[in-house]
Amino acid sequence: MLRRALLLLVVIFIISSISSGATDLRSAQELKSIQTMISVNGHSWTADHTSVSDLPLAEKQHRLGLIWQPPTDFRLPVVDMTATVASAWDWRNTKGNTKGTNWVTPIKDQGGCGSCVGFATVAMIESAVEISRGNPKPIPDLSEADLFFGGGASCNGWQFERALSRALSAGIADEACWPYDGDGPCRDRASRVTKITSWKTITNPKDWIATNGPIMTGMEVNSDFFCYTDGVYTYDYGDFVGNHAICVIGYDDTQNCWICKNSWGTGWGEDGFFKIAYGECGMGTEFPFYAVQMSSNPPTPPAPTGYGVIVLKKAGPVNLKVQTLKNAHIRELDITNPATRQITKVTSSVAGRNFNLGTFKAGDSLVFKIITDSGTFSSARSSNAGNVNHMYLLPLGANKWQMRWAVSGSQFLDMVCTVTSG
Questions:
Q1: Active site amino acids
Q2: What is the pLDDT of residues 116-129, one digit of tens each?
């Protein structure tokens, strides 16, 4: 019996290896075909392996999710491509140099769920919050789960109009209230939402972007798009995979392209962003451009502390108390201030001790980093591969927080530390 079992395992391993090898070969062959057609067509964008390029077709489809079913009599208004305000604009750099102000929030990852409409809507609204209040800090982190799942959507996809109507009527809670991998909203959701005042389709996308902020639209995704790494994308090779929602954060008339924010993490494209030629993939010809408006002074969403980044509300000394650090897989806990340096390093041997982290200004942030047997995880969730979260921050008052180890949304008390400010 043992010999039969071992033989069966060997057969399974061989079949699995053959299947994996066949998939790798198909991916390599497709990539070569894409690169060849880019050259043949005289285009200049670069195709290579990315975090999503080698996924099976079904999993690639799950990275999309725009449901587009316009009425049979629908006619898209003609889009005016004139740029009267500026010939180029990028909300990541509004001064046009390396010291420009960034009004675009960090790249996120929708994972294997067709929630692109939720991510594109949130990306647009997060920038609208910053621009409307005239200050990109603190960086808003709104909950895609609250908008998407709270609005009744499923991983099979969603529509633009339903997402925008939900943002108008019910608002969007912050990420800490309903994490993307969480089970539902927090109890005080009603007091933590950000609402838009209106939304509409626009026909002057360039001037709107340069004057008001990022917008949202859809695009037809073909198989070559999953291999995009940089340059100005044009469709060159492969089959239609599905429709996708994206946020448009700028444009460049010199390169004749839109500048866009995607929701596939930083392992794809230009660190998660991409440029696409005007007129490609139905942008503005098949899919409308959508824009939102905020009040002139929108309420500041709760600081993004729910997943571990502490934004100090007042100036003064900050103290850390390590209560427990007994998880055998946690080797070290580091605390840093992004604007300065590493502040302190904590290991299991110092559990129970107090640390004076220094004196800070109001608005300064503290970032936690856990070094474990399986890797290093930052409390700045968007910095982690796959947007994973292993830290949960529990507010204990106006200037006091408790940090806990977390896995898949569940909190564990084998790493607990308390931070007190002021």
A1: 116, 244, 262
A2: 999 999 999 999 99
